Amino acid sequence: MKTRFNSFDIVCSVTELKRLIGMRVNNIYDIDNKTYLIRLQRSEEKSVLLLESGSRIHMTNFEWPKNVAPSGFSMKMRKHLKNKRLESLTQVGLDRIIDLQFGSGEAAYHIILELFDRGNIILTDYNMIILNVLRPHTEGEKVRFAVREKYPQSRGRDGTVTSVEELRTILEKGQIGDPIKKILIFQLDFGASLIEHVLLMHNFTNASKLGKTFHIDKDINELFSAIQDANLIVESVKNETSKGYLIQKKEERANTDPNAPKEYFYSNQEFHPMLFNQHKSLPYQEYDTFNLAVDEFFSTLEGQKIELKMLQQEKEAVKKLDNIKKDHDHRLTQLEISQEVDKQKAELITRNQELVDNAILAIQSALANQMSWSDIDNLVKDATAKGDPVAKHIKQLKLDTNHISMYLTDPFAGEENANSDEEDDSKHLSSCTIDIDLGFSAFANARSYYDKKRHAAKKQQKTIESHGKAIKSAEKKTKQTLKDVQTITNIYKARKVYWFEKFYWFISSENFLVIAGRDQQQNEFIVKRYMKAKDIYVHADVHGASSVIIKNPDGLPVPPKTLNEAGTMAICYSVAWEAKVVTNAYWVYGEQVSKSAPTGEYLTTGSFMIRDKKNFLPPSQLSLGLGFLFRVEDSYIDKHNGERKIVGNDDTENYVENDEVEVKIEEESDNEDKQKEILDVIQEQQQQSGSDSDDEVSKFPDTQIKINHVEGTKINVVTESVISLVESDVIYLGDSKPIRLKPPAQKKEKSLQQPKNIEKVLEQKDENVKITISKRGQKGKLKKIKEKYKDQDEEERKLRMDILNSAGAPKEPKKNKKSKDVQAIKNIKVPRNPKIPVQKPENEDDDEEEQTAQVEIDMINAFTGKPFFDDELLFAVPVIAPYNTLTSYKFKVKLTPGTGKRGKAAKTAINIFLKDRSTTPREKDLLRAVKEEQIARNLPGKVKLSAPKLQILKK
Predict the structure, then answer these.
(1) What does the buried/exposed string (b/e) look like for 489-509 if buried means 16 or more CB atoms within 10 Å of the residue's CB?
(2) Where are the annotated coiled coils located (predicted)?
(3) Per-residue model confidence as pLDDT tens digits over 698-733
(4) Domain contains 72
(5) CATH number at residue 105
């Protein structure tokens, strides 16, 4: 299969790509470490140019999966090429080197793309001084491809032949018997396909060999003429755009039904800018341009590899079915043959009864006289030599099994077969070599062969009867196998390999992506490429501990639970797992991690300097879990929003984006005091709003709230909506228990002013803060209240507010002396968001960084660990994470240090999930599509697997 450009392909591609000249660079992305995309734009016209080191260059309409975090090489090209105009695009000679110039004069920069050997991409300035190189190396003793070196402009060669003498010199370097095509390929820069094409035009086949079918003196002029034709073809494609052709291979699909029409699969094998002579008899697809053909070839390459693998599996399944059918037919044939042979042997023994009895008696007599087996053998040989009629029919003694072999003939068929070849005895009914049991008479031996014949007949009948069932069962199994192969193939096609899967990874309980290096090289790589200043770096002072990165795209504080989970990961992927040692990890901000030591000492690969304070985490338990995340179709993602989020409770701090919020909670026994304090909150808001200008919004989180409530009441501060007033004399704090106001009649006039301000305060509320009051035993009432007011709109709310305004102010409650003694003030302080300086790459916009962050969030939001029955699932991804992270997952098992092998543990886990009764057919298909090595490679070492009813499932 052809996977890279030759010189002729480059000529055609450059001719077509020249229409990009004049377009400006909009942005640059990297697909992998060898493949880059340059997005170009000219007014409304947009194009994407793809460059792959060592392989290809073409425009693409395919949506290639770009890396979330651009590589250093991409960032360097962005810095120098962004907004620059493409001024020229040329091929260096006829070599596989392309020079792309962006900008002009002293502001010009060059991208040199090398498509030979291991390939390279080089960024230079206008003086051809190398600014960055994808693959630094040295050629020979002097030529170095490194930063600040000058790129050799004479690097390209022009491999052409201009005279017959030059061609003669080339041919004389070859050896006798070398194919002419092979000699020319290494000397001329036309590419193998074009050379073969012109050779066929001049009647030189692949069998033309130097000194045998090709003679220099006789055929050199004709060969030179062929090379001249190749030159003409190359010159012609420099002036006009070439068509594109995909050469295909036709393969028949497997089918269990012989009467069904045959189906074929066409796989792309090669791409060419013209239809060469050697390909005219093969199936092909034609495209308007060479660029379209190349883009189609590479964009479908991975899919076709999966199809070909599926085709091979289908063929193996059908072949297995054919083998079952052949084996069944073979068994029936053998049973028929054995019946005929046993019948023949029985008849021959019967017809030679006297002879067989005499032979048995002779051997039994010798054994009775206690003769040795060797003496008996010699006795039989001597008797045979003397012409004894019994001895000459004894061919072999098998005294160890109490048998002798006799060659018997049919006495009624004549003596014509007596001297026939013993190798063909089984083919003749008139003679055969038969084993005779010395313990039975001739008739008894004949009866035993008849019994064998009858037994074989019964076996044949049973085989025939079971033939239909066996074949039907095999066909059913084969059809199921074909269906499974098709399903798994479709899953593979939909399966997207994410950038983080090459590392250890998991998604935390609060929806943060956590990655860790598998070795020191990956530890170095993820810190340098993927860690940003706002990310969290987690590590442990244990040998072999991974560098763990918590990706934090939105920059908010990372909750403690996620920090602990990342710490568990750092500990488990270290020697602590094998040693079963419990220790703790620490975390720091990304900006605290550096590769440079203040003392100037050398830091080995994967080692980093941590500046300032380390934040140590609690000791981590050596407990991991194996679970599965399912990628849902995009339209089903919203159903799973909030599955992984920060949960506010007594043990977890609550985070908001604003400054500190301090809530003082005072325990009171009188419900009226609680009502008073609620009104105090509202009055306090009135005073604050009155002091501000009319257009300034009151900031609720900046207010210190003092709430008195009865014993047993709990207050939580979370980051969503605020106070809502629903009924005429009821205040709702969030979605919790309603509080009924009891305003006294004597203060009615005063209160008429107050509720208007209440509405103003509520309209000026901060949308990021919500105060909820919950009381034990009130869940049912809260549910009814939610149901009652779920459809309330703004107009209805204002109407209810007007009703509330007429209720007046509440009565001043009596002071309870006892309450002062039982006050228990609790302060809940929410830490401010630390201001972490984010070091942005050069020349990168804020919009692009926000877009990258959103891509990361959207990417992990598409995964769910607890799919719904009606979800459309695309594929399953195995994940190894701290076990408490997988609590809500549908499929999970616990892993602790043990003695079990990783591969066996992975296989056992999948079998457990497949046998679960709650597993849907689609989930089973997705689980089967996961390879065991995908799971095993992420396990930290030898493990012990724990799951409910594990022993029963194993049995």
Answers:
(1) bbbbeebeebbbeebbbbbbb
(2) 775-802
(3) 333 444 444 444 444 443 433 333 333 333 444 444
(4) yes
(5) 2.30.310.10
